[in-house]
Structures are given as structure tokens and as C-alpha cells.
Amino acid sequence: QPTNQPTNQPTNQPTNQPELERGMRPILDLFLVSNTHSILSSSVVPDSGCIPYVTAWEANNAVSTYVFYDEEQIEKGNSIMIWWKTLVITYQPKDYFSNDSHNLSLYLHNGAMSNKYTQLFLVATLSKSLKPRYTRGDSISKKKIQSNFFSIPVRNQEVDFEFMETFIRAVEKLVIKDLILRSDKKMSAYNKVVKW
């Protein structure tokens, strides 16, 4: 005889989870912004130490070399750096030296949510929001950024750091998967050539 066994069929019952939305927030709501120190390239010896020397390079996460220098001029890592002229925006996981005092360091007020994944998401959305606004002739500054807003995910009026982290982790997995597939194809092609 049939019994009233529970089924695994999905239901259309609404959940209590608030919808994810895109919100515009003042940058200063999320970040403490400060100017960096200024260490000219002529003052450092390339490859003389282990502290990243961060410049306007877009390649290599803006790190041009690793140097030894006055530790009192180190910028704290786990932060976002904005190069003022070209608006190169990077996440710097470790303490670093900066080449220009016009550059900006951004530190999340919510330190508990300050990790690689949320910071990388914030780098992307800061870039999208700020790059159309500034040019070399009208460059960003600590004063100007105080009136700037940027787009971030919010849920129930609160910044959704969990979504940011989940999103970047998913992107990271897709990139790794793509790299593995490309590597496998190259190895397969190499093996065919060797066997031939």
C-alpha cells in the first residue's frame, strides 16, 4: 500500500532571503583612504630586498621589483592601491612601498571581511566606477575621492561581502579549470609530435 513518503520534488514556496541588488555607496562608507609615502625609483636598488615596490605598472600586479628601504615608509598590505595618474587599481596582499605620495591606499573599515576575494571584487567595481570619471588631465586625489560613489552588491540594505567572496571564488575555479584544459591540450599536442 502506498505511504505518505516525503518527496524530493522542488517547491515553489518563496524563501525569506532578501534579493541581491546593486547599490551606489560613497567610497568613504567602506574605506579609510590615505595618501601613500613617496619613494622615488632613483632611491631604491632593484631586487635588493623582499618588500614589493609598487608603481603604475598594470602588469605583475603593479609590482616592478622587490626592495630594501626605510621600514617607516611601508604601506600596510591587505589593501587596495590606486595610482593617481593612470588609475591603475590593484589589491596588495602584503606590505609594500609606493613610488608616489599622490597614490591612494584604501583600507576596509570592516576588517573582518577584508580578504583576498572581497578585495579583488572591490578592485573590479572601483575600476568600473572610477575610470570613466578621471583622466590624466583630471586625475584622482584624496580630496576628490571623498565625493565619489561606486556600485556594490547589497542585500537588505547591507553590503553583501559574502556574495563578493563567493563570486570571485567561482571565477577563480573557472580560470583554473580553463588553464588545466589548455595545459592538457598542449601536452596532448606535444605527445603527438614526440610520437610522430
Describe how the helices and strands are arranged.
Blueprint: E1 20-26, H1 27-30, E2 31-35, E3 51-54, E4 63-67, E5 79-82, E6 89-92, E7 97-98, E8 104-108, H2 116-130, H3 142-145, E9 149-155, E10 158-159, H4 161-195
Parallel strand pairs: 3-7
Antiparallel strand pairs: 1-9, 2-8, 3-4, 5-6, 5-8, 9-10
Helix pairs in contact: 2-4
Task: Summarize the structure in short.
With 196 residues, the chain is α+β, with helices and mostly antiparallel strands.
Provide structural commentary:
By secondary structure, the protein is of the alpha+beta class. It contains 4 helices and 10 strands, in the order E-H-E-E-E-E-E-E-E-H-H-E-E-H. It has helices at residues 27-30, 116-130, 142-145, 161-195, and strands at 20-26, 31-35, 51-54, 63-67, 79-82, 89-92, 97-98, 104-108, 149-155, 158-159. A 4-stranded antiparallel β-sheet has the order 2-8-5-6. A hairpin with an 8-residue loop joins strand 3 and strand 4 (63-67). Helix 2 (116-130) packs across helix 4 (161-195). The protein is globular. The model has no long low-confidence stretch (mean pLDDT 88).
